[in-house]
Amino acid sequence: MLLDDLPVLPVILPLVAAPVCLLLPNNRLAGSFATLVAWIALVLSAMLLHTVAVVGPVEYALGGWASPLGIIYRVDLAGAIVMTLVALMASVTFPYAIESAREEIVPSQTSAFFAMFLIVFAGLMGVVATGDAFNVFVFLEISSLSTYTLVAMGAKRDRRALTAAFTYLVLGTIGATFFVIGLGLLYQVTGTLNMIDLHDRLAGVDNKVVRAGYAFILTGLGLKLAMFPLHRWLPAAYTYAPSPVTAFLASTSTKVAIYAMLRFLFTVFGFNFGFIDVAFTFFLILGLIGMFYASLIAIFREDVKMILAYSSVAQIGYMLLGISFATVDGVAAALVHVVNHAVMKTTLFLAVGAVFYALGSHRLSAYRGLGKRMPVTTAVFLIGGLSLIGVPLTGGFISKWVLVAAAFNSVLAVPSLVIVLMIVASSLLAVAYIGRIAWTMLLEEPVGRQPKPVPMMMVVPMVLMAALTIYLGIDAATLVSLCRQAAETLLSTGLGFGGTS
Amino acid sequence: MGHLILRVTIKLLFAPIILFALYVQFHGDYGPGGGFQAGVTLAAAFILHALGFGLDRCQKVIPPGWLPVGMALGVLIYAGTGIYTMLLGGNFLDYDVIQPDSHHHAGQHIGIIVVELGVGLAVAATMLQIFYAFAAREPEPMDDAW
Predict the structure, then answer these.
(1) Is A136 contained in some domain?
(2) Domain range holding A490?
(3) In the predicted model, what is the mean pLDDT of chain A?
(4) Cα→Cα distances A147→A28, A143, A246, Å
(5) With a CB-CB cutoff of 8 Å, which residues 65-84 of chain B face chain A?
(6) Minimal CA–CA distance to B40: which of B140, B126, B138?
(7) Partners of residue A5 in chain B, C-beta under 8 Å
């Protein structure tokens, strides 16, 4: 019985758990409960991924109302991959947050903190699971609103978290408004909100209203995923949020927005829509600029968390670049990078959180000689850093490899070789900013007080993620072939081969 | 004892507003209305009372500690209905399985009324919480206050 409900369970489980968590006392119980929920959700998502990989996309009609009238959840391979990824990140960051939150959150807010964490989790899962365009907006807002709260909770250690959260709130709301205006325009033209139904009814329709709707939706999602000129909220929000929040957000929220973008580009609009190429041109140009601009800024920052936040903006450039090729290879490369970047960024941010726990600072100066004092954390950070650069035997190498291969195989306005050279050049910038931190950690003499020992609950998730980074670099075939299949499903819908494929 | 007219008016209006909120609440499954509007109306009655008679008296009736419980319970009632229908073998929020033998969809009526109760409770608690959060805020001393 419950197996039939598999597409909806990973979404409602955290949603129901959140209010329960709010009622729990402000101690370890709240965090342990949230962790348990995340683990169950991970198992459910993995089962869902397995089902989808074997039998194809699954549908679920909420309230028994069939599509296109009712709201349906529809999970295909791309969705199942992202859902499993989000659940995995939650399962790793929630136990880490139990200890970390004791340092970084006001104690009376502990249960509210974990309740918010669960709601973000539920919202992100919902965006991916749903097959209804308006439902995407609802879940996007559920996750965003709770994210603003989580970022603001960093105010215990640094009051700048409040302005960061407010900036994020204003820009995030503008993004959501753009998105919903776009949806309104599409609804006006087609009279439906079901994604597959939208796709069918939009076939052959190309007028100013649809084009405006398209532009609004892409801009709104662009804000949510921090596409280069719209990324202004991201560095401050990531820098001042509590460490586990940063680790979870960096690995999931922009990734889910990328997923929503893919959904709208290929499932809703598709290649029949003549105007679609405009987005690809923009993604190509903005992705490339973002890669260089954000990396260059990262090199000159003194705050390690800020460096990694700017690096996130740069990495989103790679994903947009992959999408802009508009080929199966390109989209697959973007999906591979979504997974790899999520894993490596969590590794890095968890390590940064451990340093913050031990020394109470994110400044680069606090990292002097850390290799001698906190060898495990340093090793974990370096593994994540190497993956960010794209060194072989790490996940980052695989995503760059797949991306470069996709660039060579696609016909673009810019010669492929130029794009490949730019990918390599921007990786060199990553060498510069990671190298700077690595130099400080390994080669400088330690100064200041002895770091506090980091509890096992924080070390284990961090080491697990570092191990996963390496695993994804060695056994990449599974992930790459899964992402390839996912991209094929996405693009075949986009090419108009029906919604059931 | 200032604001006499205001206070008398508030006393007159207080009960009818709550009655109207309940009407909107229970009318929701047949016509316009429902939990959200009812919750806001209900909270408005208490906010009005607090504006006229002071926050303390309002907080004596509804202590701030209850509100998170109200919000959480509201969501739980909503989601719990969905889970109940799932356990009965239907889809999430498929109210028909509550009364499968009914010919005029009694299950849908029961389901929506329970769900709207949850929404009403959550919304009323949230509105009051927002009001308490702003009204109970100690003004921060200005930089030049000393």
Answers:
(1) yes
(2) 2-494
(3) 90
(4) 21, 6, 10
(5) 68-69, 71-73, 75-76, 79-80, 82-83
(6) B126
(7) 86, 91-92
